[in-house]
Amino acid sequence: MSESQVPIHDRAAERVLVATAALDPGCLAEVQSLVRPEDCYRTEHQEILTACYALADAGRDVESAAVLGWLGDHGRLAHAGGADAVASLFANGETTVDPTSVARRVALLAAVRRTDEVMRRKAAESRAPLEDAETWLREAPAEVQRVADEGLRVRADSLRGVREVAAEFLGRV
């Protein structure tokens, strides 16, 4: 697959989001309300985020050893990149003071990928014999619009003002 065919995603944003969710329990609920694990393009980020959410939902601390343990217990450690990769994510501490903006970016890019998938499927359908072209013409745009609208649930401005971010940071400190 050429680079132009790789679905849109932001590896750095996903990595920062996952690290922030794992290292900053205060933001986990907000991140969880915006991003589902499957919104991450990279499998390892999906797995680690799943572990973070599962631990938080169980009332356990979300920290490196617990995440590694959960992934191992559920047979998902290899899918998460292995113990060294997961530990490195925690050790590097690449976090953000504005997890909401990063979460919105990850969620919006996932919505673009889902919309693209629907459009590709509908395009493939249009090249095959259609039993009812009129119904297809009515339903195809509506399906694409529905998926796009679902993605826009996070459309709030993903770039917040410096003052707002600074105030949030100071509140966390």
Helix content: 55-70%
- Point out poorly predicted stretches: 155-163
**Biggest β-sheet strands, sense, barrel:** none
Structural Rg:
19 Å
Q: So what's the overall shape?
A: elongated
Q: What structural class should be given to the helix and strand makeup?
A: mainly alpha
Distance between the termini: 45 Å
Separate helix tally = 8
- The number of distinct β-strands equals 0
Give the overall average pLDDT: 85
Strand content: under 5%
Order of helices and strands: HHHHHHHH
Description:
- This protein has 8 helices and no strands.
- With about 170 residues, it is mainly α.
Please outline what is shown here.
The protein is mainly α and 173 residues long.
Question: Features of this protein?
Answer:
single chain, 173 residues, mainly alpha, 0% strand, elongated
Task: Set out the fold topology.
Layout: H1 11-23, H2 25-34, H3 43-57, H4 64-73, H5 83-92, H6 99-126, H7 133-151, H8 162-172
